[in-house]
Design brief:
Layout (H helix, E strand, L loop, with lengths): L1 E2 L2 E3 L10 H7 L16 H21 L6 E4 L2 H15 L7 E5 L4 H14 L2 E5 L9 H7 L4 E5 L13 H10 L3 E5 L18 E5 L10 E5 L27 H13 L2 H24 L4 E3 L11 E6 L4 H7 L4 E2 L1 E2 L1 E4 L2 E4 L1 H5 L4 H4 L2 E5 L6 H16 L3
Parallel strand pairs: 2-12, 4-5, 4-6, 6-7, 7-8
Antiparallel strand pairs: 1-2, 3-9, 8-9, 10-11, 11-16, 13-16, 14-15
């Protein structure tokens, strides 16, 4: 995808709004603008029907029932509702431990930190190996009947690691804990069935699957719903779990984006994206550019993810020199003006120096071979010019 002659290779940060998704949303900004919670007139009914349809489309994507889909403002809120809501629901029992993997998204880590500070919940980290896979033996050792919840993301957003969700789910349920999964990156990488994987709570985001920004969802299994308490209070919408007027156009866009990911389309799209990713890596090697790959091999990796260390280079400098021609991402986060190495890369054993040379390239629906070829030329020139 090119915008103003810029090659976009940051699909794991966000995806462009699919034109068909955008078109599906338009009527609900204009003539069908009714509040879906207005139960006394036709415009309210039609908006509620659209929301119900979107729930059904999203549920179909993950193997759940439509009533188990709770809309949120995004995956950050969904993650917070999963962790904080579970802890609030368990306030009266003796379960005071939560286990999270070492490579979770910051919204999970910070929610867990808040629980530790405000509710005296003990947060324990499940280590991962050098490819980012959860240490199942260590998880088994950590699990017992005082664990409230285990949170492990399905597909890592930085290095693309696809976890063994079925085994993690089995171990978690055997101990009597809830299994929460940040599934934001999953729809573009794997077929996900919440029943088969024993997932009780699953966070999703529309803007990672070519839908609109500002809308996410939390799947809450029927039988676990009584154990989750709301973290936003108001009119009691969405079964009392998430108050606030549901944004009909955004829900419609989310549903349409999910619907486009039919099983056949997902398979074909993943194969095409994986081909472009592998072509990119192979051609970088042919150009004799010195780099190494972070994370697992391609069999257990997001098909569009290429997280690469460029030997002797500083990632931020390389990306700045590529502007405004190519968009990608470093593995670092900037907080209060201080550049810090990615906790994901640190967790898989990379030194701060090596992690600082990491760039994540991610491919998607509108990537093509010409962009790959142009990107390689740009990267080669940037590295050769690097001091």
């Amino acid at each position: 995808m090119k915008i103003d002659n810029c090659i976009y290779m940051d699909y794991q940060a966000t995806t462009p709004l699919d034109p068909e998704v955008s078109k599906s949303m338009e009527p609900y900004y204009n003539e069908l603008f009714g509040n879906p919670h207005s139960a006394d007139h036709i415009l309210g009914w039609r908006s509620q029907q659209a929301v119900n349809r979107a729930q059904k489309q999203i549920a179909s994507l993950i193997g759940s029932e439509s009533e188990e889909i709770i809309f949120t403002s995004g995956a950050t809120e969904a993650n917070n509702l999963a962790l904080l809501g579970s802890a609030l629901g368990a306030a009266a029992n003796q379960k005071k431990r939560i286990l999270i993997s070492a490579i979770e998204h910051k919204s999970v880590m910070e929610a867990a930190h808040a629980l530790s500070e405000q509710h005296k919940i003990l947060i324990e980290i499940i280590p991962v190996d050098e490819q980012g896979f959860v240490n199942l033996s260590k998880l088994y050792d950590l699990l017992n009947n005082d664990v409230l919840l285990v949170s492990v993301m399905a597909v890592n957003n930085e290095i693309g690691t696809i976890q063994d969700l079925k085994e993690i789910g089995k171990l978690t349920h055997k101990s009597g804990a809830l299994f929460h999964c940040d599934g934001v990156q999953a729809p573009m990488a794997i077929d996900l069935d919440v029943r088969d994987t024993c997932i009780d709570l699953l966070s999703l985001s529309a803007h990672k699957i070519y839908g609109p920004k500002g809308i996410g969802a939390l799947y809450v299994a029927h039988e676990k719903s009584p154990h989750i308490k709301p973290i936003i209070h108001g009119g009691g919408q969405q079964k009392g779990l998430r108050s606030g007027t549901v944004p009909t156009p955004l829900c419609v866009g989310f549903g349409e984006a999910a619907d486009k990911l039919t099983k056949e389309q997902k398979k074909g799209e993943r194969q095409r994206i994986e081909y472009l990713r592998d072509l990119f890596i192979d051609n970088l090697r042919k150009e004799e550019i010195a780099f190494s790959v972070n994370g697992p091999n391609t069999d257990s990796r997001h098909p569009g993810n290429a997280n690469l260390n460029f030997t002797g280079c500083e990632a931020h400098s390389i990306l700045l020199s590529l502007q405004p021609k190519l968009c990608a991402a470093t593995g670092a986060a900037c907080s209060s003006g201080i550049i810090e190495p990615s906790h994901v890369l640190s967790s898989i054993g990379l030194s701060e120096k090596i992690a600082s040379s990491a760039i994540r390239f991610s491919f998607g629906r509108f990537s093509d071979e010409q962009q790959v070829a142009e990107a390689i030329t740009l990267i080669k020139n940037a590295i050769e010019a690097h001091p």
